[in-house]
Amino acid sequence: MNKTPVNKEAPQSVDSSKRKLLGVAGAGLAVVALGGIVSCSPAVSGVPGLRWGIVGTGNIANSMAPRIKEAESAGLAAVSSRKMETAQDFAQKHAIPAAFDSWQQMIESGQVDAVYIATPTSVKEEISLAAVRHGIHILVEKPFADLASLKRMTAACREKGVGFMDGTHFPHLPRTQKIRTGMLEMAGRPWSVASAFQFNLRNLDNIRLIPALEPYGAIGDAGWYNMRAAVEYLPDDVELLSSDAGLQREPVNNAVISGSGVMHFSDGSTSTWNCGFNSGALVQDLRITGPDGVIWIDDFVTIRGGDRNERFRMSRGGKPEDFELPFSKHAPTLMFEDFALMVQDPGLFEKGVRASERTQAWLDAAWQSATRSEFN
What we know:
This protein is an alpha/beta fold. The chain has two domains: 12-166, NAD(P)-binding Rossmann-like Domain (Rossmann fold, 3-Layer(aba) Sandwich); 170-329 and 351-375, Dihydrodipicolinate Reductase, domain 2 (2-Layer Sandwich), CATH 3.30.360. 34% of the residues lie in helices and 27% in strands. The chain has helices spanning 16-19, 59-70, 84-94, 103-108, 124-133, 147-160, 174-186, 217-221, 223-233, 331-342, 346-375, and strands at 7-8, 30-33, 36-39, 50-55, 74-80, 98-100, 114-117, 137-140, 164-166, 192-200, 240-249, 256-265, 270-276, 278-289, 294-297, 310-316, 319-325. The strands form three sheets. Strands 1-17-16-15-14-10-13-12-11 form a nine-stranded mixed beta sheet. Strands 6-5-4-7-8-9 form a six-stranded parallel beta sheet, sandwiched between helices. The chain has a two-stranded antiparallel sheet with strand order 2-3.
């Protein structure tokens, strides 16, 4: 992609005006939750806004801890790990007031209002439901065991009146919002979303390559983003009609290391997708095609390292035009800020749940069609 922008624009978001409200939250906002009031007391550990606890101390948790601290109306209050030494090391590294060797103890401690669950998929539902029973909001890393498991979590959140969000970052970027809101003008109603998310992961000790912990393997981990791209950029009224897919497995332990397929929708549109852990280089391409134009992003999952701006290209009639949105905040930081907005707004809760459930439903369909073809 041409790095020289033709059209620079200030970052925008559908919730940008609401996000400004978060600036008043640091001194000790009482957050209005879905079913009542959740006190975000800064008196405990001196943490402003929503007091976050992290379940898990792996790579993704280490990446997210600084983003929580950057976010308005959020602060890190606690962390839990299976070993106290690990929890204490993580707490010291990120200046977190409390460490626990049990997630159960952390959610029962009264020191957290929300938990970020960065664990293997196999235990996400158990931890999530326990947190919800204690009136704690949950932000859960994707993917989920299946749609039924996810629906049990979201139904529990709705019943208890607490917030839910999955841990997908790119929907919170101003670029995503700009493309969504400008789709009809830039490209017309899209009839094709083509995405590829591939990278190199060969360490069989990584939980993503351990089928007992992550049964969907690459299709669950990387393929989630392919499905979410279709959810975000295809019209909201489409329904999935069919899925055709295939997969490859690691010969040593049978973990799924790649997948690809095509999905057909009720309005005639399609989504072609490819994901994998066996690529010689990072690929995160997205192409959205409509009757009036084509939109292309070469880093749709995460902004490339060192490139702080959000870029995409639009082509109409063979004439490309590059857009650049200046960097504002990291996508995960925006995610945690949007989470604080969501717990105040039932409409945002339902919108987020719908996106999560559609993504998992389409992921399940891709998995089922891939495994069927594997044994035919």
